Amino acid sequence: MRETHDAVKIGIVSISDRASSGVYEDKGLPALQEWLTRALKNPIEFVPRLIPDEQAGISATLVELVDAGCSLVLTTGGTGPALRDVTPEATLAVADKQMPGFGEQMRQISLAFVPTAILSRQVAVIRGRSLIINLPGQPKAIAETLEGLKNADGTQKVNGIFAAVPYCIDLIGGPYLETHDEVCKAFRPKSAIRATPAA
Ligand SMILES: Nc1ncnc2c1ncn2[C@@H]1O[C@H](COP(=O)(O)OP(=O)(O)OP(=O)(O)O)[C@@H](O)[C@H]1O
Ligand SMILES: Nc1nc2c(c(=O)[nH]1)N[C@H]1C(S)=C(S)[C@@H](COP(=O)(O)O)O[C@H]1N2
How many domains are there within the chain? Predict the structure, then answer.
């Protein structure tokens, strides 16, 4: 087993008019932080932001976090069809590349929980050396989409989207992310798996 893990900086962004103005307590940032801490073996520096559903402000926050060196930025909220839901537009506005597989897989997973999952417009994009992914706003949907669906015996039924995140970050020149298999088994082609250093 590897003794040391690369450090990673992760931006977490909760996008909610009501949580950011104090109408209700934000549950998005704690849910993101809890899941990532449970899933990753790497030491994580979190860069958190709680902001309203304003397109220009969301784009500016994403650019700021990428420029600050975050290899991964996860957003939660503002992906539905309501007039104020503009997270996908704000994310696409700062994209170098779109990564449509993440949104497709999230909707696939979420349909097992709620029929209204087809109302979610989550996107994922690459900007520079950073992967930015939109997650739904329901706090419980964060773990559901990252982790996927498990059978009653604990085996994986549908892979969560996080299974593909470490290899994606390898490909854009980021740190080597390693996960706890019981939370989320990351997939890499054999040729991309780092050799274990000699003891
Ligand atoms: N940051 C949050 N903290 C706690 N609960 C949230 C948060 N964001 C969303 N929710 C819950 O999930 C539901 C759906 O999220 P959505 O992003 O569509 O919010 P919304 O209805 O647009 O309102 P708002 O932007 O004011 O949170 C919300 O109505 C709320 O019950
Ligand atoms: N796993 C999961 N995904 C989900 C949901 C949920 O409860 N669980 N809610 C859906 C609903 S009702 C909507 S409108 C969309 C968009 O949510 P957002 O605007 O909160 O981002 O996410 C969907 N995805």
Answer: 1
ipTM: 0.92
Atom of ligand 1 nearest to the CA of 26: 3
168-182 pLDDT per residue, tens:
999 999 999 999 999
Cα 170 from Cα 85, distance rounded (Å): 31
**pLDDT single digits (tens) 21-59:** 999 999 999 999 999 999 999 999 999 999 999 999 999
Indicate the pairing of strand 8-15 with strand 44-51: parallel
Question: Best mutation site among 12, 13, 15, 18 for ligand 1, i.e. most ligand atoms within 8 A of its Cβ?
Answer: 18
Q: Is residue 139 part of a domain?
A: yes
Could you list the residue range(s) of the whole structural domain that residue 162 is in?
8-192
Q: Model-level pTM?
A: 0.95
Q: What is the CATH number of the domain that holds 152?
A: 3.40.980.10
What is the rounded CA–CA span in Å between residue 46 and residue 44?
6
